[in-house]
Structures are given as C-alpha cells and as structure tokens.
Amino acid sequence: MNLAGTTFRAVSNSKNGSLNSETEMRFTSDEGLVIGTYSGGTIVAGQVLGKRLSESTMEMLYHGATINGEVQAGRAQARFAKDADDQLRMYLDWHWLTGDQSQGQSEWLLVSCAPVQLRPPVNKSLDLSGGERFGTSLMRSRG
Hints:
CATH class: Mainly Beta
Order of helices and strands: EEEEEEEEH
CATH architecture: Beta Barrel
Oligomer: single chain
C-alpha cells in the first residue's frame, strides 16, 4: 500500500511516550522516501522520515515538539497489518534518541485515505530574466 495521503490516529502508546489518542500522523509521500507529519493532542508539531524495508515494514526517524515545550527525537520500526475487522493498523516499536532514551510501542489506526494533490508542473517558459539580472548586479557589486 502506498502511504501517501493516509492518516493514522494513535490508539495506544507506552507510558513513556509523548503522544495520545488525539495525535494523528499524515503521510504525504511514499516515493523512495516516506515523508509525513504528526500533531494533535499532546504534540504541537512533528515530522517523520521513513524508508520502506518491505511492503509491510518501514524504519523511520521522527522529531517533534510537545505542548509542554519539549523537543524530542526518536527512531522506530513500523509494521503494517490488517486487524480482525480488516482495518489497517500501524504498529511502532520505538525508542527515544533524546531524553531518557527509553523504548516503547504504539499502535495506530488508519482513519483516512485521501489522494495526494500533486504539485503542478513547473512552467518552463517562465521569464526568469529579472532574477538573473539581480544575480548579475549582485555579483558586480561585490567585485
């Protein structure tokens, strides 16, 4: 499954984790690298960078800021599997790279799967002469 456009909500976490059941993780890309963000509940903002190991596993690095002003970073091994109700879940075995460097597990449920809007193609006929003139004049002013 391509994760781009998916949103997972945390349903459980170890006591030493920072997120809660209001935290959502949104994946925006799954092309070579898996890229995402997470926020909500006790998390103000966070980012995820992952690498697929197989169709159902991924390793990831993450960092985020909590509502208590902490900035934290960690790494995780993710496993994706369907439950008895045929709902996709993400299971993370994680450990902190900051703070007490403890370990834990969290479980996430797929709550949304929307197509990702691709960026429009770059207009190759765009006139960049103004930027080139600025760059030229800037270079002359230094020399």
